[in-house]
Amino acid sequence: MPTVFDRALARTRGPAGSGGGSLVPSYLSKLPQWTSWGTKRAVDEGFKASVWVYISIQRLMKAAASVPWYAYEKRGSKWEKQEDHPLSQLMARPNPFMSRQTVIEFQVAHLHLAGNAMLKKIEIRGQTRELWPIWELDKIQPVPSSIDFLDRYDFRRDGDAIPIYPSEVVHSQFIDPSNPFWGMSPLQAAARIVDTDIEAVRWNKITLQNRAVPDGVFVIPQQQTRAQLDEARAIVTEKYSGADNARVPWVIGSGMTYTQMSLTPVEMDWLESRKMTREEICATFGVPPAMVGIMESSSLGNDYLDSIRRIFWSDTVIPILDLLMDSFNRSVTPAFGDPAVLQLRYDTTGVEALREDLGDKITQFGKLMMSGVPVNMAAQRLNLGIDKIDGGDVALVPGTLVPIADAGQGDPQAPAPNEL
């Protein structure tokens, strides 16, 4: 039975572009580019296996998907939001079965797990009417072109290659310096660290269950019959194994000695090792540990947490949104109008972490004006969102706020403006 993606794939087709000049080596032209890293592997071995990978990507998904998107038209020197524009409506409801939040969450998750995110466009009369996430990214290989850089993407299923042309999709990627056609996942770089974390959890679980790795051996000096050995083994197992008996001292018959074979969790510094691992995983995704619930100190104040949230948005979430915005404006917006006067943008005005204190802005505004900065320039620099005022572009005399051209009036000893 064909999937939604199959039906979407069959509804539109477009010709490959044409151009001049050789952009890639001829030996790469028309050859699908393969990668050993895939979405399924990333999900199975990372997202579903490591709590820190899961919660880090969840934080990114929810944050990025929380902001709305709108079309902005340039009218004069201003960009004005157009909430009823078809492009705004497309982003509000990308397809009949998914909300904007769901589609953006897929994009962010795929970027961090696979290094690539793709949306299939459904076009009617030359305009994109629906956007569908492509989640079978493991089955897609880009095919370079010596003329147009990228000829197509091959979607391979059951041995057949279905061509998907660049004009049919919105492709976002985290850059892989060794492969311009396909992105690299942050999880790929952290794979060994994630494996270490997963194995640490597994080791701890099995250790608590049945002491999987023997800490040592019990040695009986005399020769024993099998019945005696079985009895001794049963006694040790009963008293030694299981979480309820961990670290409980035992008393066994005389003549038996114990020799330690392995290090204890304390000797291995297991807890500290896990702390380092989880922080490395968080750092890989650009998520501060406090954002995933790691609070090393109970004395952390609200000011500190507010700063962490602001850093998370400014340094991590905003660059992701910028990447998606560039992809949309490259692949979707041109069909709705001239990109010089029409853009798709995200709106972060509702993000509390990015709201600066108005009192601080007013204080800075006053300082800038008292230092001679024109009013309009100061308002623009602080992003106060106020309209330009007449005469607000004139330089002021520091400390007096008098226009520099009028500074000498009323003082016959003052030099004329052209003599300053």
Separation of the first and last Cα atoms: 82 Å
Number of domains: 3
Helix proportion: 25-40%
* Largest sheet descriptor: 3 strands, antiparallel
Strand content: 15-25%
Mean pLDDT: 77
Low-pLDDT parts are: 12-21, 416-420
Helical/strand content category: alpha+beta
Radius of gyration: 32 Å
Topology of helices and strands:
Layout: H1 4-11, H2 39-47, H3 51-65, E1 69-75, E2 78-82, H4 86-92, H5 100-114, E3 116-124, E4 127-133, E5 140-145, E6 149-157, E7 160-164, E8 169-173, H6 186-189, H7 191-210, E9 216-219, H8 226-240, E10 257-260, H9 270-285, H10 302-331, E11 342-346, H11 358-370, H12 375-381
Antiparallel strand pairs: 1-2, 1-11, 3-4, 3-8, 5-6, 6-7, 9-10
Helix pairs in contact: 3-5, 3-9, 7-9
What does this structure look like?
By secondary structure, the chain is α+β, with helices and mostly antiparallel strands. It has 3 domains: 1-187 and 273-355, no CATH class; 193-260, no CATH class; 357-419, no CATH class. It is built from 12 helices and 11 strands. It has helices spanning 4-11, 39-47, 51-65, 86-92, 100-114, 186-189, 191-210, 226-240, 270-285, 302-331, 358-370, 375-381; strands at 69-75, 78-82, 116-124, 127-133, 140-145, 149-157, 160-164, 169-173, 216-219, 257-260, 342-346. The chain has a 3-stranded antiparallel β-sheet. A 3-stranded antiparallel β-sheet has the order 4-3-8, with helices on both faces. Strands 5-6-7 form a 3-stranded antiparallel β-sheet, with no helix packed on it. A hairpin with a 3-residue loop joins strand 5 and strand 6 (149-157). Helix 3 packs across helix 5, helix 3 runs parallel beside helix 9 and helix 7 runs antiparallel to helix 9. The longest helix is centred in the C-terminal third of the chain and has 30 residues, at 302-331. The radius of gyration is 32 Å and the shape is flat.
